[in-house]
Amino acid sequence: MTPRKHTIRKVVLGLALLFVVIEAVMLPFPWTVARLRTHNPGLTAVMKERIRQARARDEHYKIVQAFVPLSRISPSMVHAVIVGEDGTFYENDGVDWYEVQQSFKKDWKDKKIVRGSSTITMQLAKNLWFSTSRDPLTKLNEVISAFMLDHYLTKNRILELYLNYIEFGRGIFGVEAASRTYFGESASRLTREQAARLEAIVPSPIRHSPNSPSRFVSFRTNIILIRMEARGW
Predict the structure, then answer these.
(1) Considering the domain 29-230 in this protein, what is its CATH number?
(2) Domain map of the chain by residue range?
(3) Per-residue pLDDT averaged across 214-221, rounded?
């Protein structure tokens, strides 16, 4: 082996080792994931990110959240997030491998993250441990962590955590806080229309409100209602 090839090999191995170390530091430990079976998280990574952003702007930021069990969340809300975010939620293993493959193909072709492929479980992983970043490394971490979540938790527990920690506006986290803020009702009393409107803003909760007459919210709401009806919901 020539000195040049030997140097290149050392660099490649060094980068590979660095990548493994970074992944080991960033990913949650198995016992951290397993603990979620019976313990609810405190501040999530996304909550902390929003707090840091507000402080950087010298703005006050208050988190509004009220944890409620899945049994106290309207079935319409559960159905809305499934048809809106992850139609194969109960069948997949935390990752929609076809969508991930298509996403990486599209993103590689366009040289940027342009296609969404996150399942409910991947979104939960992002909220709990990572950030709103859409870089490839974060996406890879979401995939690995989602697989761990699906292994250690039941589908209902994943849904329960997702619905209680997802962002619905500035400082508003979880469907109970969102329901009371926007509609003055508990999450258990959400109608199909209200649930669809809340789900409509999930892709962009800071820019949109479920009560907004914007074309984006109206379009997504109608799509979600049509999908719910198609499934007999």
Answers:
(1) 1.10.3810.10
(2) 29-230
(3) 95
